[in-house]
Amino acid sequence: MFGFSYNVTRYLRIDPLTLSAVASVSDSDREHIINVVRNIVNNVKKKYEGRNDWSGFLNEIADEIIEAINRGWEYYFKYLLCSDGKDNAFCRGVSLDDKLPDEFYFVLIPADTRFPGFSNSIGDHMITTSAFAVSAALSYLDKRCGEIKINNRVLSREEVRGIVRVSALLHDIGKPPPNGHASRTKDIVYDIFKDIDKELAEILSNTASRHHYGQNYRDKPSNVLEWIIAYADKASASSRAFLIRDSPDAFKDFLDLAKDLQSIGYDLGGQEYLNQIENRIYESEEDSEDYRTYGILSTDENKALALAKKLISAEEELCNGEKLLALYHLEVPSIKSYLRRGRELSIYSGYSLLIDSFIHEVSHYIKRSIGKEAVISEEGGSVLAIVPSTFKLNVGEFISKLFGSEKVFDFIRVGKMDFKFAEAHLGPKENWSGWNNVNPYTRDSLRGFGTLLSKFFGGNYTHTLILWNPEPSGRLCEKCKVNPVYEEKVCLPCSLAERFYESYRRMIRGDKEVSDFFRDKLSKLRSYKLIVDLDRILQHGVKVLSTIDEMEKRVGSDEKKFGRDPVLIVADGDNFGNIKSNVTTLTQYIEITRRFTYMIYYSLLYALTRVGEFNSKLFLKPYVELVPILIGGDDISILISAQNLLQFAYYFDEALVKINGRVENEQKYESVSDKIIRKKPYLWFGISAGAFVYTNTAYPLFLAREKAEFLEHISKSESKTRIQRRYKGSGFILSILDNKFIYEGSRVLSILGEEAKDIYNIIRKLEESKISYRKLLDYVKLESDRIRIFYDVARNNKDAAENIIEVIQYADRKSIPLSSYILLLTIMSKIIEKDANQINGKTMKYYEVRWE
What we know:
Layout: E1 10-12, E2 24-26, H1 30-48, H2 54-82, H3 89-92, H4 105-108, H5 122-142, E3 149-150, E4 153-154, H6 157-169, H7 181-193, H8 198-209, H9 224-236, H10 248-263, H11 271-282, H12 303-307, H13 309-312, H14 314-319, E5 325-331, H15 335-339, H16 345-369, E6 375-377, E7 382-388, H17 395-403, E8 411-419, H18 421-426, H19 440-446, H20 449-458, E9 462-466, H21 492-508, H22 516-522, H23 526-537, E10 542-544, E11 566-573, H24 576-581, H25 586-619, E12 624-632, E13 635-641, H26 645-660, E14 662-664, H27 672-677, E15 687-693, H28 701-726, E16 727-729, E17 732-738, E18 750-752, H29 756-768, H30 773-781, H31 786-796, H32 801-814, H33 818-832, E19 835-839, E20 842-845
Parallel strand pairs: 10-12, 15-17
Antiparallel strand pairs: 1-2, 3-4, 5-7, 5-8, 6-7, 8-9, 11-13, 11-15, 12-13, 14-16, 17-18, 19-20
């Protein structure tokens, strides 16, 4: 993957959070992206043959290009999970042959081969350039800034949308290398479209290629659309670095890596160029500048402004100073308050599906009217998008049209903030000047897109739309005990939530009778995709519970024996918001937001797959049961069998580490090649979780949620006070209690997922030496009195002495309280002591399965 030849210039895209790469690329690898685009164009062309519809044709091509980029990213995360081995069901379905998928090159090829732009993928730069360009072009039309003509033909709104999107998405298709890419782009785009329509091919090739206006460029923008794409390209800023606020050492590590790569032949701009950047950070004297870094990290605070002079005046040139771009955010606030209304699983999970569906419908509306690239994120109960400054959405009417009434949610928060092209590049205008002698690194970590977002979310740009303020009623919904009755004994929101969950389960079972309304809404959700993907991998070994009572029955039968205990897991990301606020460009924001979404999704899929495989030793086929209640943003809520909790924790942690790495403070490398491959995270971005086990399935679900959230907070505290002081990277931190020990909060032990296998295996040893749950319970009462514990073992069960010593030594080695460790062993021992199944007349307990 890192083959090197002195006759071929090689480039790397370095992951901005792990400072690692998976493969090098060369100039010829742009052919992979060209092939993808050519195939898309040819496939879409078949649908439009005989139709004079440029707008539909081009907008469908743009949508398909974005989907191809997304497929490239999906493969990237599968590759990270499986590149070191395929000995499991998840990875056996991932092709890792020498010939990588063409879409993967949207990720592998850097947007700029030079430092520091080589941390941005060309695919994401294509998306963000198009997001800015299409929104600006539509605002230009809406504000009547002028007609948009090409070849004396006035273009319709949809033609403008199609031309701008395709041209912006393809503006860098001539890369790598950067030098001469605009000319190559012109030839490539014309060649792709010439056999369809020569006039269209000429329009697209000119609009895509004329995106540079520097004095050394001969083919500069010549019309409004070309100027809009040129400004959008600059606003996207493919050469900007990811500057972590208050962490210049992280940037220095990044720069040192670049110098190492340059020394072994990778083209990152030259050693002298890298030395100049280093001097800008650490020396006070002004040094020479060029356009590759846009004046970032210059000792002259005005240098970046001077190099963005044309961009700063973009709105004056286009529309008499009118702002054309806007950030738009819509949120269903306090999702957890809706989930807590659910005293039944169908309501609890149904509210999550209902809210997620609504958010995706808003997202779909934006994608359909502006473009798929406009939506930045659509998870966690909110949607964030780049939109025209003229964008409007009547939310109340939208909800009424969607659900038949706007009384589905109590209130919605909606925010919109107009901004200039240059503010996407340099942050809010008020941050541009007045820095005096502030360190350039500190200054430029605050002059970027992340600060623009912080201004948006922290300012007075959001209003609350009250949709329903129900009056007190004598008849409350029997499901939530909050809202007045809508029909019979249930309120409208609970009725909808229940129908969403029932339709969800029926779709998973393959029921053809699910209404088109619910099928359309649910098929867009990650909760549905997770089950479909998992069921395919495990060959139909997945069960989504209708009620928690189903856990009382034997797997694959209605017998009320061999039951399992439910565990509700609630989790939240560590430092996700802080990392996103540090981005300097929209390209970085999209890449990092996608990373958090995909790392959670694929870690869940990987962990559940491995759990299903583990269970095949007990049930003679892969099997996993679950309810994915909430999978959005950095929030997770999932219900599984407690008997699989340790396996789930271990494999979820393993997946996070495969994707993101986990390192202690000091690392040494055998060679530069080793340094390239190995992940070098410089921040902690793990997952903190609470797991509440309840042995009685009648235990109220909303109370279980409260207990799980309490445990999640314990994990958060452990993450800050212990884990983050030792590690950088990622991992799964878990705190476990059951309903018997819920008042033992002060003795809860938080573990990293990798420790779960050790816990399982020590329980196996203890059980085999006749130290059961009940005996461990006695030791819990002895607190941390090692002498009394060992005396009891020596007197009553000498065969177990060695295992008890191992427990004590493990606690000492890990510097954890012995009483907390024994409490955890007690809880998990009780769970996995249960009978699992009867095979060939022999009853097997969960702990009897060997876990190597």
